[in-house]
What we know:
- The chain is an all-alpha fold.
- The protein is built from 2 helices and no strands.
- It has helices at about 5-15, 25-60.
Amino acid sequence: MKVSPIQFFRQVRQEVKKITWPKRKEVTQVTTIVLIIVALAAIFFFAVDVVLAAAVKLILRLGV
């Protein structure tokens, strides 16, 4: 079934009207949570990197 471009855009407009958009408060809360989780993950991976780098230096210094 072919649809003309004009009909297609009418259908798109109708579908967009059905979307339930999040409120500003919800977006702010979710964004804050995501930023906190990203910061915690960055700190965790930084700590793991420091520990592994120290372990590699120790192993290389010992000549194993």
